[in-house]
């Protein structure tokens, strides 16, 4: 019996164990990529498969493995044993959709940040890296056909929602939290979550997403709510890009809430805050 075999380990030992498993899965995932895709890692089809392998191997499997080793009730350990009711799911979905212009406004403000002049070389590299990531993201999202759309929903919405939430709001948040430290752990986890994406000019909105997702776990006792919220955020992007690439006339998804529609970003922020407060008042269930 290996279930719960490390349940009595200290927090420090658990952190070390988790890092070791993540590193091991990184090696295994890299080996799989080298074996099957070493000859052509530039084609967008292979890029998608590599991203899928890495998301599952590095982010999704480690928290599942370690929850099994740390607890006799791994589902409860990751707060997967409580599934939210339809009312909570609907409210979180509405909040995520209403928040789109506000998040775009925060992204626009984040992009206005400039480093001191003596760090100009670093800033240039960061902006170049950001541009490359954005270009790759657009290549991934610009597809034709229902089959390609459904695969993008899997790749960009379903798998990241599961893997990143299991990893950060599941394992990492659990490791960092303790008595009277849960709120601090939410913020630390959110900072790590945003930093790991290596996109400085989207750091603030992504961090705030992470904070909101962490509070959803705290207030509901369920990891499924942040998974659903994360999925909604990503799938909206997938659908918008698909429709625009296939000739549907829609406003720029990434610009709604900034520029000429700045007012919409402000209204979105007010409505989002009101929705979060309402959710807290009606559904709070501290862990």
Number of strands: 0
In this structure, how is the largest beta sheet organized? none
User: Into which percent range does the helicity of residues fall?
Assistant: over 70%
Number of domains: 2
Alpha carbon gyration radius:
20 Å
Number of helices: 11
Low-confidence stretches: none
Distance between the termini: 29 Å
Q: What is the global morphology?
A: globular
> What series of H and E elements makes up the topology?
HHHHHHHHHHH
What would your notes on this structure say?
- The protein is mainly α.
- The protein has 2 domains: 1-77, no CATH class; 80-283, no CATH class.
- 74% of the residues lie in helices and 0% in strands.
- The protein has 11 helices and no strands.
- It has helices at 11-37, 44-70, 74-77, 86-98, 100-111, 120-141, 146-176, 182-195, 203-220, 224-245, 262-283.
- The protein is globular.
- The chain starts with 10 loop residues before the first helix and ends with a helix.
